[in-house]
Amino acid sequence: MSTLPAAAPDAAIDTDAKSPILGRLRSLPGQFSPRFWFALTLTLAVVGFGFLGPYLTGVEDPDDIVGGLYMEPSAEAWLGTDNFGQDVFTQLIYGTRTSLIIGVTAGAIATLIGVVIGLSAGFYGGIVEEALMGVTNVVITIPSIVVLILLSIAIDSRSIYAIALIIGITSWPWTARAVRAQASSVRTREHVDLARLNGANTFSLMFWEVLPYMLSYIVMAFVLQLTSSILQESALSMLGLGPSNSISLGIMLFWALLWESVRTGAWWAFIPPTLFLTLIAFALLLLQSSLDEVFNPRLRRS
Amino acid sequence: MTQFQRYVFKKAGWFLAAFVAALVLNFYLPRLVPGNPVDAIISQMASGGADSASMQNIYDTYIKEFGLDEPLALQFFTYVGNVFRGDLGTSFALYPADVRGLISEALPWTIALQLPAILVGWILGNGLGAIAAYKGGWFDRGGFITSLFLSSMPYYAFAILLLYLIAVRWDLLPAAGGYSFGTQPSFSWSFITDAAEHYLLPFLSLVLIFVGGQAIGMRSMAIYELGADYVDFSRGLGIDDGRITRYIFRNAMLPQITGLALSIGSLVGGALITEVVFSYPGIGSLLFKAIRQNDYPVIQGITLLIMAAVLFANFLVDIAYGFIDPRIRAAQTGS
Question: Residue A268: closest CA among chain B residues belongs to which residue?
C-alpha cells in the first residue's frame, strides 16, 4: 500500500510530490464499494442520533425523573424508564453522544501519540528508534485494561475527558509500531533524499515527505482506535469505573446489570444500549475494512 | 554465546523491564487514592458501626501490611518482597480473608470457562476462515459479514442478549451463578450436571464471538497468501493443488498461533464482564465486587495476576517465534 500507483494519468505530469494523496483522491470515488457507502450511512446515522437527537425530539434533561422504576415503553416514554425512573430514550441519545465523544477524543489522542512516536522512531532510526520502540514494547505488553482499572481507581472525580485521556494514553502502541514500520521504509525513497539535498529540515522532511504517504493508513488506524476506545469505555463503565455523573452506553448497562433488569425481564433498559454499542462497532469496523480494500489493492478480489 | 541465546536474553531483559513497570504501576496507582486506602476503608467501616477496639486492631494490621508509616521507596520494596513470597495482602471488605485465598478460589472457574472456549473457538474459526478464503463466492461473502458482525459485537453485549433470550425469555437454561443456589460444590453426578447447565450459556457467548474474530483473521491471512508470488511460482512448476494449499495454510497459521497463545495469556482479564453478566463465580465477579467496595488489595491482586499472565505468555510467544520463524530470528539478531 505504500507504493505510488500510476492511477491518474495527470499524476505523472504533476510534479507536486508533496501530495501523492491528491492524485489518488481524484480516482477514488469509483473505488468505494457499496459496502463503504452502507457503513458510512450507518455511522452518520448514529452520529446524527447522538448529536441532533435532542433537537429532533425536543430538548429534554436526561436526568429528569419521568416515572417509576422500570416502567414499560409507552407514548410518553418511548423506551420506558430505567431503575431511577429516568426516560431510557433520552438517556440513549445522551449516552450515545458521550460514548462517541469519548471514542473520538481517546482515538485522536492515541493516534496522535502513536504517529508522533512511530514517525520519529522510523525516521531517525538508530538509538532514537531503539529507545522509542523499547518504551512501546513495554507499554504494549502491559495489558491496557489493568492500567485503565488502576488509573480509574486512582482518580477521584472522573470526567468524560479524563476517561478519554486515560484510554488514549494506554492504547497508542499498536499505531506506533505500524507507523514506525512504514516510516522507515518511506524514509529511504528518492524523493526524501531529493528534498534533503534541497535543504529541507528534518521536521519538514517528516511532515511533508514521509507523513503524506501514510495518511490512508493513519485514517484507518484512527477508525480502529475510535472503535476500540468506545468499547473500552463501556467495559470500564460496566465494571463500575466509568465517568462519574454522566451517561454513556456502558453506564446504562452498568445500572441495568446492577438492578438485575435482564433477569426481571425489563428489556427496554438493556437492549437499546446493547444494540447501539454493537451497531456502532459494526458500522465503524465495516467502514475500516472497506477503506482497507480501497487503499490496499491486494485485499481486493476480482 | 550463540545469536539465539542473545536473542533470548535480550527478550528476557525487555520483559523484566515490563514486569518492573507493571509492579510500579500496581504499587503506586492505588496509593494515589485521596488520603490513603487504609483511612478510606476505616472511615467506611466506622460509618458501618464497628466498635473502636477492633477498629484499632484492623487499622494497625493494615498500616503494618502496607508499611504506610515508612517512606515510599521502602514501601515499594516491602510490596515487591510480599509479592514474591506470594503474599497479596488482606481483603478490606472481607476482613480477615487473605487475597490469595480469594483469588485462588475464583481462578479455577475463570480458567474452566475460558480455556475451552478459546480452544474450541480457535479451531472452528480458523477452519471456517480458511474455507471462506479458499472457496470464495457466497460462502465467503455471507460468512464474512456474519463473522464481522459477530466479532464486532462486544462480547458482553452478546452475553447480555444470550442471557436474556435463552435463560430469561425462553427459560431454557439457568440465568445466574456457576451452580444452583444452595448446593455445595462436590464431585457428585448431580452437581456436575448442574454446573454443566450453568456453564453452557457463558461458554457459548465466548465461543461464538471468538469464532468470528478468528475466522476474519484467518480469511485475510489466507487471501494474502493466496496472492503471494510463491503460489504462482508453485503453480507454474506444476505442483499439485493439495500441496500448495498446505504451504499456504502453514504460512497463514503462524500469526494465528501467536494469537492463540496471547489469548490464553490474557484469558484472566479477557472476559471479566462475561462473568459479571452471568454472575459466574470467577475473577471478573470478584473484581466487580471489589471495585464497588473499594477493596484495593483485591483489585491490586487481580491486576497483578492479569499482568503476570499476559507478560509470561508474550515472552513465551516471542521465544517460540524465534524457533519457528527463521526470518524473525534473523531480523531480531540483526544479521
Answer: B164
ipTM above 0.95, yes or no: no
Q: What is the rounded end-to-end Cα distance, in angstroms, of chain B?
A: 15
- Asked if A84 and A148 touch (Cβ cutoff 8 Å), the reply is no
Q: All 3 cell numbers of residue B236? A: 507454474
Q: Tell me which H or E stretch contains B252.
A: helix B241-265
Residues of A in contact with B29 (CB under 8 A): 150-151, 153-154
Asked whether the beta carbons of residue B161 and residue A271 sit closer than 8 angstroms, the reply is: yes
User: Which pairs count as long-range contacts for B7-14, CB under 8 Å and 24+ apart, including other chains?
Assistant: B7/B322, B7/B329, B7/B332, B7/B333, B8/B319, B8/B322, B10/B332, B11/B315, B11/B318, B11/B319, B11/B322, B12/B315, B14/A134, B14/A137, B14/A138
- Whole-structure pTM value: 0.81
Kindly report the number of other CB atoms within 10 A of residue A299's CB atom: 15
- Distance from the Cα of B307 to chain A's closest Cα (Å) equals 6
The mean pLDDT value for B117-136 works out to: 84
Which of the pair, B2 or B222, is modelled with greater confidence?
B222
Instruction: Summarize pLDDT for B43-54 with one digit per residue, the tens.
Output: 666 665 556 677
Residue in B236, B229, B267 with CA at minimum distance from that of residue B251: B229
